[in-house]
Amino acid sequence: MAKIVSLDIGGKRTGMAETDAMQMMAFPLKTVLTEHLLEELTTYITSELPEVIVIGDPDGIEGMSTDSSELVSAWVSKIKIKWPLINVV
């Protein structure tokens, strides 16, 4: 099994975490400046070859959109375009 990488995207910083190769446990990886996220992901994906990228959904109370929803949606689109063979959820 390949690892899963997860992202908690924010306006200034993004938290990254990864699973072990058996996808049983997740571990914090690093915090990066969001403006450098594509470069950081490129480095990570090249070395670790994850099968899935999980992106945190910033829904608020009762599933309503938040101020961050549009930002995260834009990043999801960028990531899906750059890595079309990786499942982004």
Number of domains: 1
> What is the arithmetic mean of pLDDT?
95
Largest sheet: 5 strands, mixed
CATH homologous superfamily name? YqgF/RNase H-like domain
> What is the N-to-C order of secondary-structure elements (H for helix, E for strand)?
EEEHEHE
CATH architecture: 2-Layer Sandwich
Biggest sheet, strands in spatial order?
3-2-1-4-5
Q: Care to count the β-strands? A: 5
Q: Helical element count?
A: 2
Show unreliable segments: none
Proportion of residues in extended strands = 25-35%
Briefly note the CATH topology name.
Nucleotidyltransferase, domain 5
Rg from Cα:
13 Å
CATH class: Alpha Beta
Structural class: alpha/beta
Global outline: globular
Span between termini: 17 Å
**What is the helical fraction, as a range of percent?**
25-40%
In summary, what is this structure?
By secondary structure, the protein is of the alpha/beta class.
How would you describe this structure to a colleague?
The chain is α/β, with parallel strands linked by helices. The protein has one domain: Nucleotidyltransferase, domain 5. It is 29% helix and 30% strand. It has two helices and five strands; from the N terminus they run βββαβαβ.
